[in-house]
Amino acid sequence: MILDGKQTSIELQNKMAIEVQNRKEKGLKIPHLAAVLVGKDGASQTYVNAKVKACEQIGFQSTLIHLPKETTENELLAQIETLNQDENIDGFIVQLPLPAHINVDKVFQQVKPEKDVDGFHPINVGRMVKNLPAYISATPLGILMLLEKYNIETAGKKCVVLGRSQIVGLPMSILLARNTKIGNCTVTLCHSKTSDVKKHTLDADIIVVALGIPEYLKDDMIKNGAVVIDVGITRIDDLSKKSGFKLLGDVDYQNVAPKCSAITPVPGGVGPMTITALLYNTLLACKKEIYL
């Protein structure tokens, strides 16, 4: 079974669009998402443009603030504080990666938790760990939404998460271990210092791969019937393609898929769900359902 993130995201965004239209008809506030982009990173520009387009399609308001790469840390922090104080902005994101001279942790901590729809502020992370209402990081939240949509059983399952980034791997391991509907897994978190990764993955019912290493997970690393969630996406030069490149995930999809009971494709799997989860968080922020 293919876990179709593209189709699922369309269905969920259509539901949000109906809710936004209902709010508009009742004279209620329309969700407003802002994005701050520093520099001219091509991939970041693509991601931000996709988020802005998604906002427009479901009736959200959106604002893109594009700052030069020379922007100082203090200038960026000042811009964030302006957004914190702007009552018209419900939530905002600061697109990663940031230039090397800017401290990412300082940036995350400057964002007001109530507007942190990316779920990166320590308060939101702490609330997530405590299983309290919180804005959950968009990619892990999107994965939870996809697992729920396809009724993937998680309770009591052995889960391996490959990668311990604060954006995906680490929160994903915590979320799947929590006592929630999509949770209650026994989780193993593997990383660059883990010895014999294959030993762990062969024992897993569910594998989440978030390493950024193209086609890392091979068919001899999983058991028959495993569920595989591929978070990675890497652009590889390919002159046979009209675009001049192809996109590869962290999973050797062609050989792994036949052994899986369920798997996400790349593209069209986790990526669209990440944007949908961000929109969902923004809608919650507008409705003030997390921080009452």
CATH class category label of the largest domain: Alpha Beta
Alpha-carbon Rg, integer: 19 Å
**Unreliable stretches:** none
SSE ordering: HEHEHEHHHEHEHEEEEHEH
Averaged pLDDT, please? Answer: 94
CATH topology of the largest domain: Rossmann fold
Distance between the termini: 40 Å
Count of domain modules: 2
Helix and strand topology:
Layout: H1 5-25, E1 32-38, H2 42-58, E2 61-67, H3 73-85, E3 91-94, H4 104-110, H5 122-129, H6 138-149, E4 158-162, H7 169-177, E5 186-190, H8 197-201, E6 206-209, E7 226-230, E8 234-237, E9 245-248, H9 253-256, E10 260-263, H10 270-287
Parallel strand pairs: 1-2, 1-3, 4-5, 4-6, 6-7, 7-10
Antiparallel strand pairs: 8-9
Helix pairs in contact: 1-10, 2-10, 6-10
Jot down its keywords.
single chain, 292 residues, alpha/beta, Rossmann fold, 2 domains, five-stranded parallel β-sheet, 10 helices, globular
Give a written overview of the molecule:
The structure is a single chain. This protein is of the alpha/beta class and 292 residues long. The chain folds into 2 domains: 81 residues, Rossmann fold (3-Layer(aba) Sandwich), CATH 3.40.50.10860; 134 residues, NAD(P)-binding Rossmann-like Domain (Rossmann fold). The chain contains 10 helices and 10 strands. The strands form 3 sheets. Strands 5-4-6-7-10 form a 5-stranded parallel beta sheet. A 3-stranded parallel beta sheet has the order 2-1-3, sandwiched between helices. It starts with a helix and ends in a 5-residue tail after the last helix. The mean pLDDT is 94.
